[in-house]
Amino acid sequence: MTKPFQVSLAPEKLWQAINPWTFYQQGAQVGLINVNLGQTPRPDIEQDVLDEVGTYGRQLGRIGDALEVILKHVTLEGLSEEDKDALKILDGQLAAIRKIKKRDRASPPPSRAP
User: Is 51 in contact with 58 (CB distance < 8 Å)?
Assistant: First the structure.
């Protein structure tokens, strides 16, 4: 008797080794949010800056703090309405960030799940 015609739409072995460290190195998405930091000609320098200076968020926070100081001491006369609006928007965002930092520093840090 002949064997009936069979079609397989999947491989015989349905398993895959999952190593999250290799995902990170290959730039694969691990969670629901995937942040692509772009390409840089010197990733070694970029990594050193992150390790020794601070995260992008920390760096941006300090730039924002410095901009607030500058804006307090600079005369803004002669700016167009569009430029004034841009500074007002930035000032509002920096104020919102200050508020969040103050709120979060007053509460205990969230516990991390094992």
Answer: no
- Cα separation of 76 and 81, whole Å? 11
Dihedral angle over CA of 37, 40, 43, 45, nearest 10: -110
Q: pLDDT tens-digit profile of 41-57?
A: 888 888 899 899 998 88
CA angle, 105 then 114 then 50, to 5° = 55
CB 16 within 8 A of CB 6: no
pTM: 0.56
Q: Quick check: helix, strand or coil at residue 47?
A: helix
Within 8 A by CB and 6+ apart from 90, the residues are 67
SS3 assignment, position 62: helix
CA-CA-CA-CA torsion sign (93, 94, 99, 100): positive
Q: Calculate Rg over the CA atoms of the chain.
A: 25
Contact 68, 92 (CB under 8 A): no
